[in-house]
């Protein structure tokens, strides 16, 4: 509780709005899942069209993120958040009244573009408001909002669908989003010195060895997480005889563990070396993933899902505050541009994960594919960490040479 009482009023207000915005974003993302059978029955789409529907979100987010992040550094966080929320409301209303796959895909694409505006801007707002020593905890809290929205979207959507019709989940979500737009417009204030941000040279920023390490870690974690969605349900059904409800609960356990560990890892990143924490998270993820297919009972599968979710949350949470710290060192204040990089690799993972999972399970049984992925995650994680340490050694040697000269 003292963590929140020590905040200033602008900090508490900003954190509250970031939590609401990220929660809404992921709530809308997963809201569609329980309504897919209805659209499949009424619109009779092909499997390819359904794949396009779900991938269009990530593709749109990947394309739009590099544009919106830098813009928020120039025009301000509040304006960009309002633009993103308006886009989310519009896409949700379009979902409600879509009567063709073309309109549904368009709605999903607009939703991804809107997420590209809200995600990096919301995280940049936290970096604006909080000093480096507090960012780890607040960024972890933001990730918890993301996981909570993901966790609740499907059951809320299913419940509203059952008590009314397929439009009700989207109409309710649109009303909630519009309410948030009004609250942001009336009560969210920006720090007056935020507009002093300088343009960040993206080329040099991406070549920074620390940024390369973070980008690689984010990609490994996101790909690992997203490839499980198309591969595990059928595996659990065949091996453990799970029902669709049980599969949903297993993924809910993973999401819950992700959300619970994220603030803890964020707080630790303010006290310990964040790069070692990210590497520890990747090691844990690689170790725990094979237990998903080695599980012989439902309880063992649930424990394995929780451990994998915690591994991903522990890996990703320190990346957010650390990116902000790199921007602080450069003195640009261009947090929007920095967090757009996080969003880009998040989007790449969302696209590549299911694709990689499908390819691997065509070549190998799931029981072999998951350990292969775990070994690859471990290998690339070690390689990234060795490269990071080598780059630090080179920089220290150069400084010593300059002093001797």
Number of helical segments with 4 or more residues:
16
- What fold name goes in the CATH topology slot of the largest domain? Growth Hormone, Chain: A
Proportion of helical residues: over 70%
* Overall structural domain count: 2
Per CATH, the class of the largest domain reads: Mainly Alpha
Morphology:
globular
What does the largest sheet look like? none
CATH architecture of the largest domain: Up-down Bundle
Beta-strand share of residues = under 5%
Radius of gyration (Å): 21 Å
Mean pLDDT: 85
What are the defining features of this structure?
86% helix, Growth Hormone, Chain: A, mainly alpha, 405 residues, 2 domains, disordered C terminus
What layout of secondary structure does this protein have?
Blueprint: H1 2-5, H2 9-31, H3 36-43, H4 47-75, H5 77-97, H6 101-129, H7 132-163, H8 168-187, H9 202-207, H10 209-240, H11 244-269, H12 274-288, H13 291-294, H14 298-330, H15 335-363, H16 366-404
Helix pairs in contact: 2-6, 2-7, 2-8, 4-6, 4-15, 5-6, 5-8, 6-15, 7-11, 7-14, 10-12, 10-14, 10-15, 10-16, 11-14, 12-14, 12-16, 14-15
